[in-house]
Amino acid sequence: MLKTELPIPRAFRGLLSLASLPGARESEAITFALTWLAAARMVLTRQVPGATLDSLMTPAGWEAVAQAGLPLPLTQRWLLSTESTTSASLLLEGYQIVQTLVRELGAGAWDVLPTLTAAVMDPRDGGPGMVSAAVAELALEMLGAPAHRTLWIPFDQWGGLTIRALRRGWRVKVAPMMEHDDPVLPLMLAIELGQPQSDDVEEEIERDREGRPLTRADCVLACPPWGVPVRVTRLSQWGSDRTETVEQFARSETWVVNELLRRTTDTAVFLLSPGVLFTRGQEQLLRERLMHLGGEHNALHSVVTLPGGALSQTSLGSALVKVTPQRDNLGTLMVDLGLAKRAAVNLDELVGTHRLVALGCQIDPERACHVRREDILRNEVSLMPSRYLRASVSVGDNAVPLQDLCEALRAPTIAREDYAEEKLELGIPELGPWAPVAASGLSKVVRVRAPRGLPTLQPGDVVLSVKGTVGKSALVGEVEPDAVVVSQSCLGLRLRTNWQDRLTPEYLLMYLRSEAGQAQLEALQAGTTIQHVSPQTLLSSFFVPIPDAETRLLVEADYRHLCKLEAEIERLRQQMTRIGQSRWPR
Known about the structure:
alpha/beta; Rossmann fold; 21 helices; elongated; Restrct_endonuc_typeI_TRD_sf
């Protein structure tokens, strides 16, 4: 799994190979390896009375380790309860591995975090719940210096965040909001400190008379599970507002953020799925609450979007969100470190390079900007940095939102019933030419439900792609009435009658394809794996400059010229094809 030959990775890999027991999960193998390292550290630091390293070759020695406070995971307990040559052989091999490690490193500090992080982050056979090293350190830096404050880390399956926080001088509360089979934190503490407990780590959960947890802290660092229904977990027992139903925040990310902000007084940093930044429904409700958390103050300090690789077992991008519930911020720092990047990037190097930008200590106009609270509220409470970084498009004082100019023609519902109607579909493959797209150029037929008032295309409509490949457009040419519909990835736009004396479809198409129009569309895009612009966002946030009569005529003349050039290019292409194929026929 790990190819480096440094002492700790080599020992860790060797112990992992010993744990390849029938039916054992990879996470159990990792816990098994950590248990050996933790036991060896406790023996070296004299935390196990009467034990030596040789004691780890016997069940009695491990019993002494357990009595000294180290919890033994299920795999280790199974090994010690089995009296067989296989069990004895595994104990001997494990002892030999840690003996070699002790001979190389002695009783000095053992840093297992890089090795553990690499093992759990491995996309082939790692495990859930691990945050990459650079992102974890950035999140802790966003909290600021400890300054005698308490930090609650409610989701830390592998103990890595707690160890990093302790190294920075924090007093950490580790009351878990979700339980795990084999707690790893005592093992990590034993490796780090030589003992499975620390005076700077508070594990006790204070409860009221009904058993409801009362844990609070100055600061919170939370990496909640993504997309988990709250009803199937124990999260709901932490609810501090009995009048608020789970239906308002039914998914884990939104529920956890909403609840933890009630339990912190200073600063909270969350590692969230990017959908929380732009999705409608409960995510938008959460964002609206964030905007009003401080009354008329701005409690949202910063948002940093990241490409995939921040969290194990997912290739999706992520976002770090910092909130200061009781402090006003002049503006929200929006930082985009490449959420939508598809190419492979080294996330740790990326975060390391732009760390100061993410912390607001360095200016980088291409990646970061400060946004006022009123601007966020005006933009559908979107917290996508890309929306604001690319929003500096000059549209002029006479620009009008698209919703005032056009009626939206949405895609119909696809149907399979016998009574469904067949329609021609105009979609992304047909977008691109300057000349209007006629029905004769369409081939795809779809079956749709045809309620009264089904939106169909007519000559003069403009079709725009809003999902997948965003920003392609075309003008609708000759089509039969009620015969053509837009595809699921597109939106039709029809000029309202009260604007038809000042604008034309040709002018609208030219602006949509212009640099300014494309820049606006790029700024409105959202999505993690598939980029899209919601129809509501497009209609309310895309602005079209209204021309005077002379400018409109010039733009329309440019459009006709482009159509002539396109036709001439097609004529020349066909002529070149004929010439190239005129000799030596088959």
